[in-house]
Amino acid sequence: MELNGKIAVVTGAGQGIGREISLFLAKHGANVVVGDLNLESALQVAKEIEKLGTKGLAYQVDVSQKESAHGLIQAAIDTFGGLDILVNNAGITRDAMLHKMTEEQFDQVIAVHMKGTFFCMQAAAIHMRQEQKGKIVNISSIAGKVGNMGQVNYAGAKAGLVGMTKAAAKELAKFQVNVNAVQPGFIDTDMTRAVPEKVRQIKIAEIPMNRIGEPLDIAKAVVFLCSDYSDYMTGNVLEVTGGRFM
Ligand code: NAI
Q: Bridge-partner residues for 68, per DSSP?
């Protein structure tokens, strides 16, 4: 799965799953634009990438804002001379039970996951259609398949990403641009460390493989979908859950 010289953009790349995806893409030879709201953490990851021997560029982005998201894609083209890979990974949670969820909590989650992915895919598609090649991977969640208590906003957004992935895959297939999604299960990051310990243990006990997922488990699936090993796959949703909710 060589990605030598490929140019990748990863959103939400400053920590957690996005950081691991960025580093694993770099390990396979890609130059990576590390896009994150948090510039400090993006700079750290860009440094780690340079140590691996490829180029890393930290870029402060709010993917929910059109100009900002389009600027991120343009930065890859201007700095590295193109764009081969886009991974839409940036995400937030604003959990609340349905009867208590505010409009703001709903809108914020939809804006980052759905609008953010829309803006980044749109800017990338303009370039990739011209180049007649490209790989787009959208990070959904198993919550988009099975739902989750307190996450009407998040599960809705993550299910929405599946529809967006398939629609974009149909549009872009004739340009040799693959669009796929990954649905992670329960992965050990700040997002899940915020879950109360008792709930965490219940969720881990439900995993047939009997362990919480690591960011690298997701990065491996993403790199596969960014490589030519998956050239004949588009519109797919890969569940990476240790067997939970199969
Ligand atoms: P995390 O909270 O550790 O990292 C998320 C990153 O996204 C942070 O660096 C944050 O600064 C960045 N970000 C947030 N809003 C942004 C915005 N508007 N623009 C740009 N960057 C922004 O989360 P984690 O766990 O690494 O999750 C990554 C993705 O994987 C998310 O889309 C999440 O929904 C998804 N996911 C995570 C699972 C888990 O168990 N951790 C399970 C299923 C899906």
A: none
